[in-house]
């Protein structure tokens, strides 16, 4: 029999990890939903954002400036990548964009290794306290990340719902040609979306960095999970991705109480396979009529 | 407004039009060919010193991209440092060493393919390197098939020199059973009797866990639980939160970025304050310390190499190795880290090959058996070739026995606590070679 306190600890772990994952996945799902681009470089934007964060952190000693600096820099880089690499491929076979983002991913990884070297870097968390949660000390910083993720995702939702640019983005998602005919600068909208996605990746990279250290491979695990989340939540569905992130993280956290960590990790992939088999549009979207 | 921005008038001169003319293609091809040709005409650095002497080709396999790239790049520094030093001091049997580096992308299948290429296409005389144990294990049959000596540079999976041992494969550094024999008395007598072991759930982690569990039990201690965590897990909190109960020490068997994640998150959850934190030295390699800061303070570990210049590591050999390794590491990492065990063991692996080739009069792969016989049972002394200390490369399983260093981390630096002589690390061989 698993003690109740273990269940509660794992519930908190699942929600917190789910919110971090949701922030990574929301950038990915935004880019896919609007541009139909499966961005294999998302994890590398996450990683490079964290590296840029370390540079700003070392220079200023301020975590929040590091977060802001990384977001701005990666948004600019994201825009540049979209203009130079993805725009010319617009309207071509989706495979070409997959290959292009895969290429960007390799370039960014090797650039980070070349520029920063193999030694992992550190960003100090802005909040170092703990509170006692049954048998463990739980860091306040993990709760702060979960809350900041919720704030960032909430801000994105408000922007999409009420902002002029957000309305342009939604119009472009619904009908690209009609949006263009109505005077919406579709190429600029795409650039903007990619820049926002890159900035969100950078934000998650900087927020997550104090928990793992910054290294060139830090994006691998979370990006793989983010892809699972995007499929399970419904490709391009922001709300679905958030729910799927929390659902899968909770599932994995609870599973680890009964099975080994290696088996608990497999649970996410079982859900992915079942989703693809029985509900390929995603678990958190209305049933297609 | 057009759908494709490069079709807009302002972009016509800015963006590639998509037309590839014959003139443009030939022009670009000629320029590329000229650049490549000019590069190839520049002789390799060792050519001047050795004239027409045919170089020995040394195949070096390391993960230079993918998840393990950081470790692979550090490991390569050791190999290249040794090869450059050999070439500067007259080469081997009057011939230079030529490194042919293969990047196996941190994947076993790519590793096998790259090793095949080294052996079949590049026709290397000997091979060195490794890093990831699963890649080493996957590649061992290829070395057997092509009857070529492979001097392992890093891989620590116990089975490489026990159940899966090969006549063609040598490990010139320690392995988990020897480390466990050296470290377990300290763990049980000075840190605590009851332990929980967290390990990386793959070949190396599992075999190291078994070795420590056996030794701790043998000395009257107890392993109350184990937690295996998959390679590359970025958030271990759910798995570490489960660890609770009454025991004395928390023992970690992790390396690379995984070790940084473990130490950080175990500290964040209060595990390393509640229990004594100890483990394989790979948890607190010098290259991890900047990222771990105070979170690894007090960690006690065992390692074959630590970057300290206190006795008995205050030898001129070690000082020279340390200085040059630091200078070379600064070239690949601006933070200028101290050398770690990956630099040391790859450096010494090349030097073992050098001595074996000298002793056997090795000419090429046709003399592989002579080289194996020369290496089997080789005893080496602390020197510029082996700054870590004396070594015995045992004939029965091709496993080296070396001195070990028990250390802790104080003020974010290694502090040497005890030196365990190589004689105290001997464990019986558990290998039976197939006929070569």
Detail the topology: elements first, then pairings.
The complex is a heterodimer of chains A (289) and B (436).
Chain A: H1 4-35, H2 42-60, H3 63-86, H4 94-116, E1 130-133, E2 136-139, H5 140-162, H6 164-174, H7 176-181, H8 186-212, H9 219-233, H10 238-258, H11 261-278
Antiparallel strand pairs in A: 1-2
Chain B: H1 22-41, H2 47-50, E1 56-62, H3 69-88, E2 97-103, H4 108-120, E3 126-129, H5 133-145, E4 150-152, E5 169-170, H6 176-191, E6 194-200, H7 203-218, E7 222-229, H8 237-240, E8 249-253, H9 256-268, H10 271-274, E9 276-280, H11 289-292, E10 300-303, H12 316-332, H13 341-360, H14 368-375, E11 379-380, E12 391-393, E13 400-402, E14 404-410, E15 413-420
Parallel strand pairs in B: 1-2, 1-3, 3-4, 4-5, 6-7, 6-8, 8-9, 9-10
Antiparallel strand pairs in B: 10-14, 11-12, 12-13, 14-15
Kindly state the percentage of residues in helix of chain A.
over 70%
Structural class of chain B: alpha/beta
What is the first-to-last residue Cα distance of chain B? Answer: 72 Å
Number of helices of chain A: 11
